[in-house]
UniProtKB/TrEMBL annotation:
The encoding gene: hisD
Protein name per UniProt: Histidinol dehydrogenase
Cofactor notes: Binds 1 zinc ion per subunit.
Residues holding Zn(2+): Q251, H254, D353, H412
Lineage, opening ranks: Bacteria, Bacillati, Bacillota, Bacilli, Bacillales
Enzyme superclass (EC): oxidoreductase
Amino acid sequence: MKIIQLNDRVSLRRNIEEGNEQQLNSVLDILSQVKKEGDDALVSLTEKFDRVKLASLKVTKEEIEHAYKQLDEEIISYIKEAAVNIKAFHERQTRQSWFSTSDDGTMLGQKVTPLDSVGVYVPGGKAAYPSSVLMNVLPAKVAGVERIVMVSPPSKDGTLPPGVLVAANEVGVDEIYKVGGAQAVGALAYGTESIQAVDKIVGPGNIYVALAKREVFGLVDIDMIAGPSEIVVLADGNANPAYIAADLLSQAEHDELASAVLVTTSQALAEKVSEEVDRQLEQLPRKDIAGASIENFGAVYVAGSMEEAVQAVNQLAPEHLEIMVEDPMALLGKIKHAGAIFLGPNSSEPVGDYFAGPNHVLPTNGTARFSSPLSVDDFIKKSSVISYSKTAIEQNGRKIAALARLEGLEAHARAVEARLEDKEND
Ligand SMILES: NC(=O)c1ccc[n+]([C@@H]2O[C@H](COP(=O)([O-])OP(=O)(O)OC[C@H]3O[C@@H](n4cnc5c(N)ncnc54)[C@H](O)[C@@H]3O)[C@@H](O)[C@H]2O)c1
Ligand SMILES: N[C@H](CO)Cc1c[nH]c[nH+]1
Ligand SMILES: [Zn+2]
């Protein structure tokens, strides 16, 4: 792993979310096929990209029952326990409608309503992600979304992985379809004969999924464009190099484009972690992927002071930040930009990926500067409520009419004045 003396130009930005021209053209072509040909396009595109000819897109009850038989009781119980933790965390995020009344009889408020329908994309190319089913569906459930549709690309035998199906069934997904990539996003946005369109599409995916989500945004809402995983570890000289190397590799194994970075005040620790990464990498089953990620987007930065190190972390604004210093709580207040912050030696990043409760769908590529983890807020919307009394309109009607005329909007002014002049308005 490269060891670099820190200067002020650290960045995780990888300019990958734009895609190249060929990828964008391919996505536009796929979306237009789905719009024109509906289910026929979904079947032929699945044959082309996933190499499977589907007899039907919808997952049946029998397929879900079969999935339960393929998994050990023990792992099913862990999926259930993770779901309990994730649900409990997200229940603390719920918002209530509120209304307030003033002496003149005015009532103002904010009405909170869950979205009617949501489509959840679960990636299925390089790995199966039952954890992403829980993380995307549970906040929608807690928000009260009525219809939750899941899509995921089928494996070569035309099925979805058992863990994905069991997780979906455990958290109450209403409909599951075996379709992935840009074509799945198109189906959720435009609707086809079998898949009714939804109001919002959430969930991570590869570049084709990301570009398709960006393209249909406006017709439907989207959560974010979640890019490849990122981890930054902030450590002092006393941190455990083996733990740090293991945690860096945990994210590197996601993707050749994932990034894993250590920022430390200790040259000695930098050297030990670099050696540990090389040693542990050799023992990993996905060492090709993790190795490419470490080679291209891995780095160890050595800072002159903890202050300088914290500044670098805020500049990186990583998806995941682990703080491995003597007193991590003392540094927490100084961290401004990070999707999820893991404190102390036992809070390894995968604790958050699977089990603790907070969401693992997080802002990437520096977007933690202005955005937040997926949450219940992503699945609700707010309507403002205004109720003016006779007293309130009499006291304020002329002011409102004047403000309308300032904008040259006579009809606005007259609409309000109609109430003031109406003798029957008692
Ligand atoms: N941020 C998170 O929370 C999170 C969680 C899990 C996974 N991920 C990320 O999601 C991504 C998953 O990517 P993936 O590829 O494994 O699965 P995916 O399901 O996103 O993509 C697979 C689909 O891509 C389409 N595709 C493949 N090649 C294509 C081509 N040449 N032209 C058009 N379409 C094509 C196919 O339809 C295929 O079904 C990874 O980057 C992973 O790191 C992120
Ligand atoms: N670390 C990923 C988000 O960057 C989420 C995940 C799913 N499974 C394992 N990890
Ligand atoms: Zn992960």
